[in-house]
Amino acid sequence: MPHLAILLRAVNIGPGLRVSSADLRGAAEDVGLGDARTLLNSGNLVVATDGADPGDIVRRVQERLAERVGRPVAAVGLSGARLEEIARDNPFPAAARDDPARLQVHVPFGDVDAAGVARLDLANAGREMLATAAGVLYVHYVDGIGRSKLTATVIDRAVGAPTTARNWNTITKLRAACADRRSR
Q1: Whether 106 contacts 136, CB under 8 Å
Q2: CB 28 within 8 A of CB 20
Q3: What's the CATH number for 3-82+173-182?
Q4: Is the pLDDT of residue 182 over 70?
Q5: pTM of this structure
Q6: Integer angstrom CA distances of residue 59 from 19, 36, 41, 95, 113
């Protein structure tokens, strides 16, 4: 059975919006999704799609989660096949292998403006490496994300849409969770 990874945007970072794993799983269960599993405490959920439209699944979980936490929560869905595509098309395989915590995948809530990302890459004075592929933005934060001037606002502006980012370790875990659940 196909599975969908649902990634929340900007939760459980600093004093902002807090979403517990229990609330996230509960929202999925409330809307009738089976086999719901959270991954880490950073707004990652894997659910069985049961053939339903992934966009509809994300929308239903968002609505129910907003009721549970009292605020809107932005989310995007990635199928297991899409996660495999993101891994296959990764332009920074050495970073994925040797520095996975500093390689981030920025998943847009819309289409990536490749020209906007190219302009950002040319204007960026830092050592970060940027590339688009598979409809996402890959950024290798060579010196670490904490020192980078490529903030979420700067990235979103260049991409042309809001994004949510996960490091390569998390992408790998999401791929495994979707694959493991598919084989059941």
Answers
A1: yes
A2: no
A3: 3.30.70.1280
A4: no
A5: 0.93
A6: 16, 16, 21, 33, 24
